[in-house]
Structures are given as structure tokens and as C-alpha cells.
Amino acid sequence: MAVLLGVDTGGTYTDAVLLRDETEVIASAKALTTRADLALGIGAAIRAVLAQSGIAPGDISLASLSTTLATNALVEGQGERVGLIFVGFRPSDLEQSGLRDALKGDPVASLAGGHNHAGGEAAPLDLVGLEAFLDNHADALSGYAVAAQFATRNPAHELAVARRIAERTGAPVTCSHHLSAKLNGPKRAVTAVLNARLIGMIDRLIGRAQDVLDTLDINAPMMVVRGDGALMSAEQARARPIETILSGPAASIVGARWLTGAQDALVSDIGGTTTDVAVLRGGRPAIDPHGARVGGFRTMVEAVAMRTSGLGGDSEVHVQSEGLAGGVFLGPRRVLPISLIAQEAPGIVHAALDDQLRNAVPGEHDGRFVRALPGVARGGMPPREAELLARIGAQVHPLGHILRSRVERGALGRLIDRGLVQVGGVTPSDASHVLDLLAAWDGEAATKALTLMARRRTGSGDRLAASAGDLARMIVDQLTEQTAVTLLETAFAEDPAGFDLPPEQLARHVLLQKGLAGHRGLLALDAALNVDVVGLGASAPTYYPAVGQRLHCRMILPEHAGVANAIGAVVGRITMRRTGTVTSPGEGRFRVHLETGPEDFAVASEAMERLEGALRASARQDALDAGAEGVQITVARDVRTARAEAREIFVEATLTVEASGRPRDAIG
Q1: Which of 97, 104, 218, 292 is the residue whose CA sits 20 to 30 A from 531?
Q2: Model pTM greater than 0.90?
Q3: Can you spell out the DSSP letters for 214-270?
Q4: Residue 380: per-residue pLDDT
């Protein structure tokens, strides 16, 4: 018998589950995610499932971790300060693929160098410029991203830069060609920047998770879920954390399939920060051919085709003061629910809320609090942010007591982006406490905060809501509406028929909305989602029945839906993919582009055999290093030719090798 431990660390909760031989859930438990020290939440969840099950720690043969932390960080714009070494590109290329936005003001060194399409050196590498950049910035950066022109054709300059940075700084370096074998340098640079920014966060998560296993005498190897639902070793995840974006959502899809046996459905997973929607076809999630898109950035990471929106149980509630009717909208940023922060600092929170309720006029920062997060790297912080962080200190404060000028709002936003500070405010979780749908935290504080928000005025001058209860119902209804729109966007995007308008417009189109409402006039309009929805997440039973009614579809809420991510973390397979290219720089010459540099052959078949052999060896070794057993290899060849003067001319070939197997310790 194999006992498997799955752990999912989300923005709000950390889940743990024990499975027996991948066929039976033995026990499951939840604990609050403790961002200041992730080990506390992980340890609490694991101890709870061990206590429930009576399983001895030594009986666990495999531990696997899925996480939404990387996804949440990109959605919320968080991450550490990094530098980009941009080799062989024009300055205007920084405006491509959202690279400038991804950098968020972090420094760039634009150096001469790079290669051409055939893998030849376009210009000598400017190592002098690199040294000058390191002299100016090394002390303020936590990591580096390196992207060189046509590095997938010849990575020599990226490797040379990475070696020099490692020698000078010892900081982690991400090379773009290690993350993708595809062309499009600026897009690879975006992926490398995001990877470099996530390294510290994921390294801390994996390190602390391993500490917990050691403390509890669990000697099983640890795996991590990738964004395509496959497993990788903890060491591989530490080097390539970008591959864990959509890890939690991907694990939830694998878990949904295991829990329900569904073949064709939409899977919607609501967490504290995001709602993630994907399509199951024939029991398998589709892989996004364009790369994962998260937080507004299109990466080159292979991941499940999924739409991620900043909508969850802990999404910030915003008041719409414009327009006569008013209303609320949710997200995309996550905040600490008032009911939760009041449980952590009851005296401070209740005293502040009571003072604000005694004021005759609503204040701008009523019902909002702020606290600092210890244990996060703080290097290179500008003076204004440093002063504000020192003012916050180690306690919870009413936000109005901390912000002394409008200029400091920008500084606070930057501290939030870097994960140094958390803000508390009204969320759907608080609304659920007011409506008695949830009783986990401090419902009295939630009622006070919603009472304060209900006093806000709309454009007509009227109160936003008559009472805390009325506002709570408004917030939950808005969550239903935004969730329905997210599901409709996915359906339009993945429907094979195709439509003339973007999914975002179609999901909100007046005819569709009238059809969902069953309009009857001169026209009779009916619309429905023509596929089942599997609802996952701890709050799915609370919110999703209304979503099913809104979309006139069957809503499946399986047992253990709240820990589907943790289940998916241990029932997946280890899968390693490697991709390479053969080009033809001249007639009778076939060039294989390898990590060690280009190699030329006189015969196309020989070039492809050389490439396939190298990719097979690399993929198999990576799978074995990750702990795979019974590795199986598949090869896909995409050979492009052109016809000229009645003969076929070789243009280019792309080979993809996949090595797959189950973790050896998961086989009982």
C-alpha cells in the first residue's frame, strides 16, 4: 500500500490530503496560509490529516505540492526586484510583448551581441557593459534574467552572461532559452523576468515545506505540480519557478477528473485570490499553444489552457460611486478579509471600526487596515517606501493612521506589489459572514465593516445600501455575476465554432444577457451554457449553485471539492518535454541547434536523428532526476517544406520529445 500526501498552498488556505494507492481519500484538512512563514500553515494542515487518519509519518511514500502563490503573485503584480540583461536587441524591443510592463521599473542593461537566425554571431558580446551594470546595480537586485537575440538558435551569449553574473554576485540567473525553445526574444525575456522575480518566493515555499516534512519525520521525496498538471522535482521547481504558474489550477483540473470522472466539462476553481476556469475534453485538459497568460502577461510556459481572473472569496470590494445607481465590483487584488484580520488583532480592529461608526461622515479609509509581512527581502528600497514600512512596523493599523499624504499612496502600492505589506478590507468572505453563510472568523467585525461601507454615497447622493445585510447580498450577487461572465468568456474562447467578436465582448453582449434572463417580447430569447460545470474550492458550495442557476447548466459540486488541488497534486504523472529545431542555412546543409551550439549535417534525416537523440537523452534524464519510474518516450516531428521547381525543399523541422512516468515512490 502506498500512502500519498498532497499539499496545496493557496492565497488564503493551505490544504492537505492523504490518499491510499491513488484510489481512496483517507483524510483531508485545511489551515490558514501563513505568508510570513509558510511552514506554519503547511505544518498545521499536515498535522491535522495525520491526526485524523492515524497514519504514521514513516508510512508516507510520496509528498507533492501544488501552489497558487506564483499565479497570485503575477495577478497581483508582486515579486522581487530583478535586472534584465537584454543582448542584441534594439531599445524599442523593450516595448514588445508587454516587456516594459513586466519590468515594473526594474533596471535593464541593453548590450551588444546576440546571434542571427542561423545561429551565427551577429556581434561580439559586450562584457564591459555587463560589468558596468553589475557595478551599479548588483547590491539592489535579488536575481537576473538574461535574454539574447536568437538564443534558441545559439545560446552562447546567454550562457556567457549567466556565468559572469554568477561569478560576480552569486545571485540566481534565468536564461530565456532554458524556459522555451521558441523564437520571439521579447516574449522569452518577459518569461525570464517573471521567472527571476518568482525564484525567491518559490524557493522559500519549497524550502519551508521541506523543513516541515523533516520536522514531522516524513522522509518521502517531494514533488511540485507544473502548470500543465505534470509533476516535477522540488529542485527543478526551484530553478524554474515560472513553470509553477497555474500549478494550483492545473492540479485542480487533475483533481476534478479524479473526483468526478468527467469527460467534457468546464472546471471552475474559486480560491481566495483567483477564479480559474479550464475545459476538459475527453477527460484531458487542453494545453495552451500560445503559452500561459496570467496577470496580463503572455508567457512562453506550457500550461493548461485556462482563463485566470482576479476574483475570489478575498477579492477587494470596490464601491462604484459614479452613476446614479451605484453598486460594487470585485478584484482583481486580494485583501485580508476584515473578519480575518480582526481575529488576528481584535482589540485594534474593533476599536477602530467603532470609532469610525461614531463619525457622522464616512471616511475615505473606513474599514481598511494595513500590516507588514516579515521575512521578505527588502533590498534596494527607496527612502519613501522604507520610511512608510518603518511606520507600519509589526502591528496592524487603521490605514488612515498610516497614510499622511496622497503621495504616500503610491509608496504603499509599491510595498504591496513587492509583497512587503498587506491591506485588510471588505471582501465576499466578509459578506458571507454577515449572511451567516460562513462562520470561520469574526462575523461581528465583518458586520461593522459592511455597515461602514453601506453608508458610502452613490452618484445620486443616496446610501450605497440600507444595511450591512443588503450590502452583503449585493456583494454575493456581484460575485455570482462576475463568475458567470468568466465562465462565458471561457466558453466563447474555447467553442470550436468561433465568433467574430472577442470573448470578453461576447460574454457581456446584451443579446446573450437577455437570453440568459429569458427575454420575452417581440423576440423570444433563450441562452444557456451547454456543458456541465465542475465547481471546486472551499467556497464553491456557498457561491456556485447560484452560478449554475444563472447559466442554466448543471453544476457539479463533488465531495472533497475543497481539496481538489491537493488531490491533483499526487495523482499526476512526471512529464518532461524538450523541443529543438533543425534549419537549413544553405542548400545541402542542415543545422541542428543544440545547447552546446549549432552542428551541421549534409543529410536532413541525419540532422533530425542527432537532434532526436539529444532531446531523448535530456528529457529522459530530467524525468529520472525527478523520480520517474517506467519512463515512456514519445516523439513528435513537425517538418516544414516548400515546393520549388517540382521538388520539395526542406525549410525547418521542430522535434518535441516527451518522457513520462509515475513517481517511483507512488507505486505501491
Answers
A1: 292
A2: no
A3: HHTT----EEEE-TTS-EEEHHHHHH-GGGGTTHHHHHHHHHHHHHH--SSEEEEEE
A4: 66
